[in-house]
Amino acid sequence: MCGIVGIVSNKSVSASIIGALKKLEYRGYDSAGISTISNNRINEQKCSGRVDNLEKILFQNPSDGDLGIGHVRWATHGIPNQINAHPHSSEVVSVVHNGIIENSDKLRDEYIKKGYSFKSQTDTEVITVILTDFLKSEDLINCIHKTLEKLEGSFALGVIFKDYKNLVVGARRGSPLAVGYGHNENFIGSDSYALKSMTNKISYLDDGDFCLLYREKVEFYNSEKKKINKEILELSNEDNIAEKGDYKDFMSKEIDEQSFTTKKCINEYLDKSRNEINIYNLPIDPKKINKIRLIACGTAYHSCLMAKYWIEENTSIDVEADIASEFRYRNVKLNKDDLYIFVSQSGETADTYAALEKCKKNNVKTCGIVNVVESSIARLADFVLPIHAGPEIGVASTKAFLGQMLVLYLLILKISKERSEIDQENYKKLILDLIKLPDFIKQTLSKQKDIQVVARDFVNAKGTMYLGRGYSYPIAMEGALKLKELSYIHAEGYAAGEMKHGPLALIEDGMPVIVLAPKDRYFEKTISNMQEVIARGGKVIMITDDTSTTMSENIRFKFQIPKTNSTLNPFLLCIPLQFLAYHVALLKNCDIDKPRNLAKSVTVE
Ligand code: F6R
Fold first, then answer.
1. CA gap 102, 165 in Å, rounded
2. Cβ(602) to ligand 1 under 6 A?
3. 211 is catalytic
4. How far is CA 599 from the centre of its chain?
């Protein structure tokens, strides 16, 4: 949450900072700000709302200067207004921050007693004050180091100093920070995507590191103030394909890309000439895995729930799926014979990262399934499986969810094969079915218009439910999450068999209810649950691969997905649910790519 950028250059930086901040808006979009140094003073300009607002302010009142920092905020401490927006500056220093300073109240009291005053309600301002204080007595390196030592919590920082006119400082503990290298200019940013129009040469700070960015060089230091070297990575062109093109928003583009991204991911992992899945060198011999624990947040957690069903279906391995924010604090018994899988699109989610750190400290075997391969989770896990979905910018995850399920599915099939729990013939058949999946996804995507019609039913709905059994249950949960986050309508996903145990009381005349009823072994039971909903006035939207029409009476609408083997149904069922959330949000005039109160990369717990 929050995005930061810093540039030191030999030309004016404000336009480039604004450009980078627009790319970082997916991390936070409740306020924005910039500081540059010119005429021997810090020029801080900030506002509530989007980067567009900041751009208008700068248009009226340009911010000159050939070095500067910028910020987009997702509020933690203090409401999103102009005063709480970053940067937070004193006469001599200006700071942007992503993360949470957990001891900020204590530090505030300490510095108020020393005679300092605070303008904002933020935790960040203590950093400005501490730096200002240390500058009076310490050299630059000690000033930075001593300040960082006083901070508890998580941060990525960008700092400029009035009296250092060739310097931007970056620091990291717990929140990501990338460094970009240019010609006579250097950059910091919350991720490489923000810097991509300026450079494709990137390094990453590790926890505890800080860096001094000059026009002509970058110096790195570790938490003990020792100078260190960093590897420079060259980003591929593929990392740079995050433009909206002709699409109205990123979400519609990302939904539409799913046939392509699925095909690409399958190609990355499948050796079609041998019908073999190329996943080798797992950190634990598949034959010896005692238990698999899947850990993630939000949509990524739903992919873990999905994997639980596939693991139970295809292997004899015991399995549990956990929400990372719970797992990290529970007294979980960690076991050396277990495999711990962490799923995260961004690879930066604070809770998932902390859960991974806990496992690493206990020397158990870890695997990360991520979209961003340079991310913190990818760098910490013993073994990494990328989902190859390309940048996902819309805050609501769509193509990454499909990618997460796909990689989990491939991994599970491979483990099952290595353990001889699936026979060769069935393995081959499942692989051949998988090769057809991108086409089935394409067919499903082509039916967007069907959902557009039914979306109207939801605009004035008080709430809705998504029901499913077996493989369809995690998808019901994911569908409900998509509708909630995009259209702000209350929605819950239930195991259809649970309805009688309470949720049925919520059904009212005309309430829209989505029933996921593919023709699998749960079909008849799901249909009975559906009839119970209909009998109480529920307006059912049924999503199925069943083509018989006899049971379509009393069903407001039936969305047909193509017929494939039932293990693959989840990949198809989730598409109409993405469309539904999208079109309801569109009808309600909601911000599709940036739903209220949310951010794409949740780097605070
Ligand atoms: C919902 C959504 C979130 C994320 C969650 C974890 O559409 O995107 O629920 O899935 O914040 O994020 P990652 O996958 O980056 O760890």
1. 31
2. yes
3. no
4. 8
Q: Is the CB of 577 under 6 A from ligand 1?
A: no
Domains 244-444 and 448-587 are alike in CATH topology: yes
323 token code pair: 């929400």
Tokens of 92: 């001599």
Q: What are phi and psi of 457, to 5 degrees?
A: -60, -20
Closest ligand 1 atom to residue 602 Cα is 11
3-state secondary structure (DSSP) of residue 466: strand
Pick from 391, 371, 392, 532: which is nearest to 467 by CA?
532
Please tell me if the CB atom of residue 66 comes closer than 6 angstroms to any atom of ligand 1.
no
The CB density around residue 579, as the number of other CB atoms within 10 Å, is 25
> Among 250, 346, 590, which residue has the most ligand 1 atoms within 8 Å of its CB, making it the best to mutate?
346
Average pLDDT, the chain: 94
Check if CATH label 3.30.540.10 holds for domain 3-235: no
φ, ψ at 589 (rounded to 5°): 60, 35
Question: What tokens does 413 get?
Answer: 């099939």
**In terms of DSSP bridges, do strands 168-173 and 291-296 run parallel, antiparallel, or are they unpaired?**
unpaired
| Close Cβ partners of 402 (under 8 Å, ≥ 6 residues apart) | 258, 261, 262, 389, 441, 571, 574
Strand partners, 181: 186
The answer to whether the CB of 199 is under 6 A from ligand 1 is no
Cβ of 593 below 6 Å from ligand 1: no
pLDDT tens, position by position, 312-330 = 999 999 999 999 999 999 9
CATH superfamily of 244-444: Glucose-6-phosphate isomerase like protein; domain 1 (3.40.50.10490)
Can you name the CATH fold of 448-587? Rossmann fold (3.40.50)
Which residue matches tokens 């913190």?
Answer: 376
Q: What is the pLDDT of residue 176?
A: 85
Q: Pairing mode, if any, of strands 186-189 and 3-8? A: antiparallel
| Ligand 1 atom at shortest distance from the alpha carbon of 482 | 7
Distance of CA 492 from the midpoint of ligand 1 (Å):
17
| Residue 356 Cα to ligand 1 middle (Å) | 16
What is the predicted pLDDT for the residue at 167? 97
In this predicted model, which residue has the larger pLDDT, 45 or 376?
A: 45
The model carries a pTM of 0.84
**C-alpha 238, offset from chain centre:** 19
Check the CA dihedral 490-493-496-502 and report its sign.
negative
> Could you tell me if 27 and 74 are in contact, meaning their C-beta atoms sit under 8 angstroms apart?
yes
Residue whose Cα lies nearest atom 7 of ligand 1: it is: 396
CA dihedral 222, 225, 231, 236 (to 10 degrees): 70
* Position 491 pLDDT exceeds 90: yes
Closest CA to 46 of 122, 147, 104, 108: 122
Q: Where are the domains of the chain?
A: 3-235, 244-444, 448-587
Q: Give the position, in ligand 1's atom list, of the atom nearest the Cα of 396.
A: 7
Asked about 304 being catalytic, the answer comes back as: no
**Centre of ligand 1 from the C-alpha of residue 301, in Å:** 8
One-letter amino acid of 134 = F
Ligand 1 nearest-atom number relative to CA 349: 16
| Residue from 299, 485, 577 to probe ligand 1 pocket by mutation (most atoms less than 8 Å from CB) | 299
Say which of 2, 359, 367, 574 is annotated catalytic.
Answer: 2
